[in-house]
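User: quick one, fold this
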Amino acid sequence: MTTNAPPPPGSPAMPTATDIRGLKPPIDIPDPWFWVWVAIGVLIVIAVIICIWKFWGKKVVAPPVIPPVPPHERARVKLQEALALIAQPRPFCIMVSDTVRVYLEERFNFHAPERTTEEFLHELKATDMLTGQQKESLGEFLSVCDMVKFARYEPGKPELEALHQSASRLVDETEPPPAPVEGVSVQAAPA
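Assistant:
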């Protein structure tokens, strides 16, 4: 007796005439070089995008270069600002003294702002960056400023003006020579 029931599990299936199917079409095997070319194309596109971004980014982002203000010019400005305090001896002397100390540190790399006057003057004796007269004048200047700052000495306006002139003179005398301008030639005058 034959039935159309499916064969039991685990038994070999008996092919019948109705089970035969037609041949499948051939499978296309992709060319392996296709993916290599796709990867190269993607890398080229990324490289072009990066180059364009860098080219446009440099033109937009580049800020103008502002040259730093030289120490002697900053000192002159601070000394001019100190003149507004000449009626108040202690704040005036503090500002003028600090201005000179910061100037000397920036100009000559002395560590004036962090040291006491005595320590600074001792360091100053060992150097030849200032002349003997400048060292002496600076010592007197700092001593008077210290008396005003710490000993409550009250100098008059002429003495404060002399302190200001002493500080200005030190800045003027120690100003570096101007740098030569590029493209300008110096010609000797005919004799």
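User: anything notable?
Assistant: Helices lie at 32-61, 71-82, 89-108, 117-125, 132-150, 157-174.
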